[in-house]
Amino acid sequence: MTGPIESLFSLAGRTAIVTGSGRNIGREIAVTFARAGAAVVLNGHRDQAALDGVAAEIAAFGGRAHSVLADVADHRAVARMVDEAAALFGSVDIIVSNVAVRKHQPFLDISVEDWQRTLETNLSSAFYLARAAIPGMRDRGWGRVINISGMDGFTGHYPDRVHNVVCKIGLVGMAKGLAREFGPHGITANIVAPGAVDTVRDWSQYKHFDPKEVVKSIPISRMGSVTDIAAACLYLASDAGSYVTGQTIHVNGGQYMF
């Protein structure tokens, strides 16, 4: 990247961890960060081949990437991942908590195990990642925390997803708290809330979702793309977004205006 505008969006010399980066939004964030110059740590918990495919894609254009298979619902695994990333690339400067499970379950059908697993994966994982990465950010006087929320946390959106609604709004509260506490140390913490995005998904959990009907309610008149979400994350991760913290960027084509 060259020139004053491009340099604002450069991530050269930075290292980012992106959870859930084997496909869809997480993959696009990781690739976008790598194209902006960051070394990227890819994470998933069961599909090593998918992570290796993204790493190969990044290497093909001269980027740096390393894949780590780890269950982010396990705080020990998260701490090991952060240590591995810092040892390999020298630091962890940017963290993106993207991973989530989204079961479509009526409230009274949510077992205690379902509840706990959803909170561990969708919310606690972000706490574990921030807890492991922020000390190094604080020591260096620079860091970026980005949590991927969604419309669930602001509208309730669809019925039968109480556990996910709780997690998505919890990520917002976490970012606000981190922004207050660590702003003086050069660390920003923000939320990106995607709207209806065209991704590969388990359609058995989206029987309520009709893309053609949804598009009718979006002023932009299209589904979002993973690139739309990654672009918002790049803004927040780079110096371009250095004066933005504790905020939510809603990337939903105007379907909801907050």
Task: Summarize the SSE layout with pairings.
Elements: H1 4-8, E1 15-18, H2 24-35, E2 39-44, H3 48-60, E3 64-69, H4 75-89, E4 94-97, H5 112-140, E5 143-148, H6 152-155, H7 162-182, E6 187-194, H8 211-216, H9 226-237, E7 248-251
Parallel strand pairs: 1-2, 1-4, 2-3, 4-5, 5-6, 6-7
Give an overview in words:
The protein has a single domain (4-249), classed as 3-Layer(aba) Sandwich (Rossmann fold). 45% of the residues lie in helices and 15% in strands. It contains 9 helices and 7 strands, in the order αβαβαβαβαβααβααβ. Strands 3-2-1-4-5-6-7 form a 7-stranded parallel sheet, sandwiched between helices. Strand 4, helix 5 (112-140) and strand 5 (143-148) form a beta-alpha-beta unit. Helix 2 (24-35) packs across helix 9, helix 4 (75-89) runs parallel beside helix 5 (112-140) and helix 5 (112-140) runs parallel beside helix 7 (162-182). The two termini are 34 Å apart.
